[in-house]
Structure formats: structure tokens, C-alpha cells
Amino acid sequence: MATVYDTFEREAPSRLLPLLQAATPGRVLAWRNGRPVSVARFLAQVRYVAAMLPAACAAVNLCEDRYAFLVAFCAIVLRGQTNLLPSSRATQAVDEVMAAHPGCYALGEQVIEPAPHGYLRLPPLDDAPDEAVVAWPQIPADRLVAIGYTSGSTGTPSANPKTWRSFHASNAGNLAMLRAAVGERFDVVATVPPQHMYGIEMSVLLPLLGGVGVHAGRPFFPADVAATLAEVPEPRVLVTTPVHLRALLESGIALPPLAAMVSATAPMPPELARDAERRFGAPLLEVFGSTETCVFASRRTTTEEEWSLYPGVRLHPQPDGTQVDAPQLDAPRLLADIVSLSADGRRFRLRGRQADMLEIAGKRASLGDLTRRLLSVPGVQDGVVFQLDDADTLGVHRIAALAVAPALDEHAILDALRRAVDPVFLPRPLLKVDALPRNETGKLPRAALLELLARHTH
């Protein structure tokens, strides 16, 4: 029996694909300023903005409001241009992306000081005239609609091009996974930015291609998350990260009823998943993917150690990582993650990342496991273990750690680690800090870690 995934694998590049899938003019695409926004109104605003955009190859989409990002994203696509998505809104990150795409411009809904070169502000969206929906916009399947940049958590950010066909294919997997958990129709509130690939998949593509409603906001504080959830109807899906979820639990705040929680960007500790499901009465679904591949597997962390692959996805373990073959990829991609496959090849266990594997004095460990053990020390609220660039006289790269632990000192943390870690893997130095330099999705860019360590050791 043919599936939607088979279709994506076979279709010709010249095929046209809809900008909005299976839409009706009155369907609620978004919730903004306490009011629903219909597909018809959304399309009118997209065309209004598209008509004002300059001729260019690409645009840096800097909109913070999720609905404004959606409008700008689609307007850029309708003009035949590419959305450029830097790893952060920091001036240097934006400038580097713009320098790599001569002739591009930047687009956002806010006043930015200092503004990027050629920065344009979105016009007031409510000024867009209403218009009848005559035909749904169609986009060439092979059109390059976005270039996402990695976070830099493992080195220099890299560019990852996405076609409209690849987004249709990746959305099919996410939509099937969520519908199996919560049903055909649901609304999304996301704490992650829309520029991040995880944010695009769960809060931009789902509304466009899956008949899902999304809230325009990006709530940060626990009280804001609760208030935002209350503004959308049931069933509700909260798209978040382990860092945001931990903050919600520690706040003690009550949330409106949830149908499911979705998490990504960092490993989800099983005990955190159990606490979240117990407190909020909904399953926690962890998704696995990358900016390079988009999401290709999921699991319910409280009941499954193994990840289940989406239909059409195949993994091929390699000596230096894992090759991913998925409907959304034009060619297989090699990830640094080390996995072991089940007998049928449809499930896998994550064993670590090639770059995270350590071998010292004939002994092996992983940075991920060492970080997990650091976080399990009572009193440690946040922490990370990482390897330094410079080697000692024996050619061994030292291990360092940063910990947020207001009630402990460094010696107490190290004493606790000695009971759980082989002495050769004890981090030296281990430093206490007030906070880790996490980005908007909770990741830790390596350059920021090294800079923070340098400030505390000099």
C-alpha cells in the first residue's frame, strides 16, 4: 500500500505543492491578540506583505512574534526568495549570514537598534485589505524556501538548505506522530523561537501543512506559559524544551489541561519526564532530529528507552556516526550520533556522539553521560561537562565542567562526582557559575562555554 512518504520519494522536482495544505478559508490558523485568525485573513496579509518586498535572492527573517514570522515566511516564499535563519539574533550572527548572501535584506516586525543593513519593518498587518480566496498558492517542490543555521553547540554554525518538498515530507512525519497521540485536530503553544528548525517544524509547518492552530506568542516565564495556553482551545499541545519544562515544574504553577507535551533540543532526563507527566497529566513526547535532517524519530520518554523511526526513515550505523536516509532528504546525511538498531531496524538506542566519546588511560566515557551524572548531584540546578581544545603534554584533552549550584561549593560537587565517575574523567577545572550561556532553545554554544570558562579562570 502506497503511503504519503512513498509519494514524496518519487515525485518530480518540478511538481507544485500547496502553501497551505487541505485548508478552508474559515479554518483557524493562528491565535493572536486573543482572537482567532482565519486562513483567508492570513493569506490576505501574506499577499499584502509580499507585494511590498524588494527584489532579492533572500531575506533574513527576524520576526519574533510567531504570527508575524509566519506571514513574513510565506511572503518571502511567494516572492521566490529564501528565508535565512541565523542561529541567533545576535548582531554578529546576522551579519555573518547576510555576508554569505550578497544582496539579501532583513525583515522584522520590531524596531532594532542597531538595525542590520537594509532592514525592513513589516507594515501593520491589520492594514491588509480583505480579499476573496480564489486559489491556494502553489509552490514549486524544489524551491529553496529556507536555509537554517546550526546552533554552534558543536562548533561553527553551518548552513542547511530546505526545499518546499523537504518541508512537506518532514511535516508528514511529525503530523502523523502527533495525531496518533492526541487526535486529528489540536492547537499548539510553543516556548521555542520560530527561527529554530524545531520551532519551524512544530509551530510553522504544522499550521501551514497540518490544519493545526498555533498561538502567536513565545511565552518564557511559567505564568506566561499558563496564560498563553488558556488562550487556545482544547486539545492543547505544549512544544517546549527540557530547560523550560524544568522551570515550569519548579515554579509550582498550574497549567490548563494539556493533550501532550513535546520536547527537543537537549536530552530529556527520565525523572524530569516522569515529574512533568505526573504534574500536568499528559504524555511527554520527545522528538529526535537535527537542523540537517529535521525530526525523524520520537519516543515517550517515560515508557520507552528506544526511539521509533518515522515511516520511510532508514538508519545506517557508520564507524564515525550514523547515516540518515529520510523522505525529506535529497541524499543521506551523516550525523555524529552513535546508535544501535533493533533487529527490525525500526527502533534505535542512542549511545552518544562521536565527538562526545572520550578515551583516557585506556578507559572510555561520554560527555553526555558525565553531564547527566553532574546534573544528578543534589543541589546542582544546571551544568555541563565539555572537553577543552588544548591538549596536555601527553596529548590528552582536559575535561572541564560548569555548574549552577547556589548551595554547594566546587569541592562538594567534586566529592559527589567521585562516587559516580572514574577519577580519570573528573572535570578539572570544575567551576560554579550563576547561569549557563544557553541560547533561546536551551542549547549551549561551544564558543560561549569557552568564553565563560575563560572569564572565571583569568
TrEMBL record:
Alphabetized, the UniProt keywords read: Ligase
Gene3D superfamilies in the record: 3.30.300.30, N-terminal domain of ligase-like
The reply to whether Chloroplast figures as a keyword in the UniProt entry is no
Coiled-coil region(s): none
A Pfam family annotated for this chain is: AMP-binding
Q: Which residues form the signal peptide?
A: none
User: Where is the AMP-dependent synthetase/ligase domain positioned along the sequence?
Assistant: 136-311
PANTHER family reported in the protein's UniProt record: LONG-CHAIN-FATTY-ACID--COA LIGASE
> Which protein are we looking at?
AMP-binding protein
User: What organism does the UniProt record list as the source?
Assistant: Fulvimonas yonginensis
For this protein's source organism, the top of the classification is: Bacteria, Pseudomonadati, Pseudomonadota, Gammaproteobacteria, Lysobacterales
